[in-house]
Design goal:
- Two copies of one chain form a homodimer.
- By secondary structure, chain A is of the alpha/beta class.
- Chain A has twelve helices and 14 strands.
- In chain A, helix 1 runs antiparallel to helix 9.
- Chain A starts with 6 loop residues before the first strand and ends with a helix.
- Chain A is globular.
């Protein structure tokens, strides 16, 4: 191991609160017991609070990508039409998953850094009336944008019967989201971002309209079969052995969110985003996103600065993990997260380090 | 939470060594860093030691069932023939996964409690010469049997070109297994049994012959796509965010296994199995398995004893988690594990409690 990592400013995993770390260091429970059943039920109930939904919430042991795949496999059948409104790496990933399952989606792509335009979505659905499911991101961590999920869901409803599938892996418990009030059919998330737990768990909130598709869908699914998960809910169980340690940690993180209140979490995250943008401006750095999210700030690097070398030096010299660019943005941007258990002091340290290493890189 | 669980004698999760718990309670690393890359590489190298293989080992974030599904999705194409030699719940699960992917397998079923008969496997392959992959268990935790994996693999080789897929989710790091010396093409395992870590990680060791199928296979796969995992290995990464905390714990557990030596682990487990069988005999209980495994002892309950109520009382009154029967054995057997971080003192406590609760149930 090289020098200790003091501070994580990465968009997943985010740092873990001490309460969560302590819970994960406790002796493990067996998952077919009353104690675990109570813990599992608590986690699902609190997840409904965070999701702002009365719909059933499913718990899966996988990354956010696994949750995205589960939505594709559970909602669609061979020959179905699907639409992806892509704003970056994660929208493109939805399209890649659909293609892996033999479904060539209609893809509406925005310029990276721009939010999804509800008018373009509506036009695309008008041109393609048979679409069964529309996939988009709440926030796309690759570009640091936030989408107007409410307006996108309204656009879908105006143009047919498609269900909306929202990837809120990085947005939930950080940016405002109203699953029921906005009529969102499927909302996916992961444990390691706003939810302040270790990676390994993913969740899906599934509406009654979506369940109809789940029951009719014919794409192959087994581990990710939502029907099996739903059938195990009355027993307070998952069908297969879950990441029990992560469930123990997630329960503690959800207690922290409940204590603060979900709206206060959103407000705090927005305040940190404002603060980060100010610190970035003071360094002369430009925001990458035209429609910036509150979960992280993506910053364009000055010409001639190698982003990958920069973040490597921030980690090795300063002990701070900052993310670089993904896909076509590799080496061109840095991404500073401010969701979950990240505070102003972490941002102070991160921007001070970023300033020093930028000066060194440009010297 | 009800009364504290003092002792786990369940076949996954098994109890966690303090070193593993401490590692999982440490601040989380980011997975796109040099430190994590070194940890990841260490885990894969030590897994090759445990597997007794020089083949690449893949790490997945899922349960053992996810690993089983990954083998199906990566090896086969629509229309392929597959054979399952089933010795219990987990063999039947392989068949169910294959059916979910549209492949109706040839199923050779043994009476529950009996090991897979290599002669029957050979005869089935002779009758069905086009089989591409043969699936069976190393140990089936549902019945407490161990298969003669070496003889089964030889039977497969005598009758064609099929690859062997061995589910060693509960067998690895507990019962002898020689991936390379026995010519096993795919060996699957999970982190939460002999590997003494929390559930959430699964592994696959994949032979060059199996990789040829992986590159040609046409069943849909994305999250479980072994090609993407292989492509990320040179970067010392997983394609998607792994269960980082579990990887940190797994590294510590693998250090313990290396210190003891894998052959010593097998020998210790065999000794504990002998001891458990003796304790069971002293209670007048009959082994369920005709071909008993070393990982756990499955015991038939006397007529009139409700197994589910018995294990519930052992947990609530004695603080000890023992497993009941699965599938058609529900309520009829109990299963006492002695793999991983379970010692003689744990078995003493478990059998004492089992004896008391059995007497109470029969009083």
């Amino acid at each position: 191991m090289s020098k200790k990592t003091a501070i994580l400013l990465t968009p997943g995993p985010t740092p873990l609160p001490p309460e969560v770390l302590r819970a994960m260091g406790r002796p493990i429970l067996h998952h077919r017991t009353k104690d675990f059943g109570e813990l599992f039920e608590f986690v699902l109930r609190e997840m409904r609070y965070v999701y702002r939904t009365a719909n059933p919430v499913l718990l899966m042991t996988c990354s956010g990508t696994g949750a995205m795949e589960s939505a594709v496999a559970n909602l669609l059948s061979p020959g179905d039409r699907a639409l992806v409104h892509s704003t970056g790496v994660f929208g493109d990933r939805f399209a890649a998953i659909l293609r892996a399952y033999g479904i060539e989606p209609v893809v509406v792509s925005e310029e990276w850094g721009h939010a999804a335009d509800p008018g373009r979505l509506e036009a695309a659905l008008e041109a393609e009336p048979g679409v069964k499911a529309v996939f988009f991101q709440h926030t796309d961590t690759s570009t640091g944008v936030v989408n107007d999920v409410k307006a996108l869901a309204e656009a879908v409803r105006r143009r047919g019967q498609a269900v909306t599938v929202v990837d809120s892996v990085s947005g939930l418990a950080a940016e405002p989201l109203e699953t029921d009030a906005w009529g969102l059919d499927v909302v996916l998330t992961g444990s390691q971002k706003g939810l302040m737990c270790a990676p390994g768990l993913a969740f899906a909130a599934v509406s009654p309209r979506a369940w109809k598709l789940v029951d009719a869908a014919r794409l192959p699914r087994f581990y990710f079969d939502w029907r099996t998960m739903r059938a195990a809910l009355p027993r307070k169980e998952t069908p297969y052995t879950p990441a029990i340690t992560a469930v123990m940690g997630q329960a503690e993180a959800l207690k922290l969110i409940r204590r603060e209140g979900i709206e206060a979490v959103w407000k705090r995250t927005a305040g940190l985003a404002d603060y980060a943008r100010g610190r970035a401006r003071a360094l002369g750095l430009e925001l990458f996103a035209r429609d910036p999210a509150n979960i992280l700030t993506a910053l364009r690097l000055p010409a001639g600065v190698d982003g990958d070398a920069l973040i490597a030096s921030i980690l090795s010299e300063e002990g701070i993990s900052i993310a670089g660019g993904q896909g076509r943005l590799k080496g061109k941007i840095v991404r500073v997260a401010h969701m979950g258990y990240i505070g102003r002091a972490d941002l102070d340290a991160g921007f001070a380090a970023l300033g020093r290493r930028l000066s060194a890189a440009q010297a």
